[in-house]
# Entry
Amino acid sequence: VPQVQSETFSAVCGFIPIGGDLLVEKMTVEQAQSRCKTLPGCRGFTFKGQPTEEPVQVYFKDKWEIGTNGSSMWTSFRYLPSNEPAEWVSTMKSVAKQAAEAAMTSAMDC
# Structure
């Protein structure tokens, strides 16, 4: 099975719904990306608000799905590890791209 050569994060507007929490911790998005790579079972993380360099309350998840509602804005990062089959990663990138295009009016203007 072909493998993707690098680890990737795809950002989308919306939240990863309740359930599947692996860890909840306050940190920067950059720190969260590093933590997700080493957290067993991490499929992504979500936090309230737009991407920022400031620490935020991060919810690491063992699942990937996106929800939205009109009352609050969230940002989610999908982790695509290098050991995922290329076909699966391609499909997930396509899904993430469609979700991002539908949810964003400008670059991460959630």
Remarks:
- Residues 86-103 form the longest helix (18 residues).
